[in-house]
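Field reference: "sequence" (input) and "structure" (output). Example, DUF4351 domain-containing protein:
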Amino acid sequence: MTADTQATDTSDKPDYDSPWKEALERFFPEFLALLFPAIHAQIDWSVAPVFLDKELQQIGGNSPRGRRHADKLVRVRAKDGSDLYVLIHVEVQGDAESDFNARMFLYQTRLRDRYQTDVVSLAVLTDTSPSFRPKSFRHARWGCGIVFRFPVVKLLDYAEPERWAELEASDNVFALVVMAQIRAKVTYDAETLKRWKFRLMRLMYERGHERALIEEVLRLIDWMIRLPKELEAEFRQELYAYEEQYRMPYVTTFEQAGIQKGEAAILMRQFARKFGTDSAETYRPRIESAEPEQLEAWSERILNAETPETIFH
């Protein structure tokens, strides 16, 4: 596999809408805090948000065929005590959508008609066209007019060095999802994409989150950034090696001492069975002072060793 292999030469087409839908539902507060902080600040988070997937499907039946969207409708409680609906639309298609503004307006009117309450429509654009920046729907004729505005976040803006640095420095786990989406869209060289994927995975580990949370976010990154089979195999090997190394910082000094003592005892028993108790006692000082990694290597060598000396060289 050469360095100029294109990232688009994957065995499966990237599935962006599914990971976005899952990410929005799993990390909804983090999503708003990162991309729409002013709205996040107005929500009463002591009341759990309610996701209304079936209701959204019922009002979205006339969406353009063939388009890829990640839509979520969420009922939330505002800090003023009122209930309202937040419609999140993520445009995951690779190209710009010409009727985007009209569709945002259509969803807004259908939802307001159905629920007779406030609906806040938010848009996230994942395309790579710098000029595609819809933010309102306007229509006017014979003195009758409509102007509908909605907040929009363009992920491509975060690819700029200053904004990217903000994402890397953020302790918000959703920043990793955003970075994965950006790199999946703007990186065309597969080798480079593999390096970015590993970097994002490593960032997740370095932030010291709980293992369960790490696994959730890593799965989303893995879902968004797809590599050709050969590079994916290489990536898995590199990640496995890193994970093996990364486990050590979580082990306290006392736990490390216990691991070393246990592995030394196992090796001593192996030694005594194979070469006799006297021989094992001869090497006890060396075994009991060795690091766990060295003890593990010696335990493997002893299986085929013909003499004690061959274990330590």
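Residues 176-247 form one domain.
The beta strands are 50-51, 69-77, 83-91, 119-125, 136-141, 144-149, 152-154.
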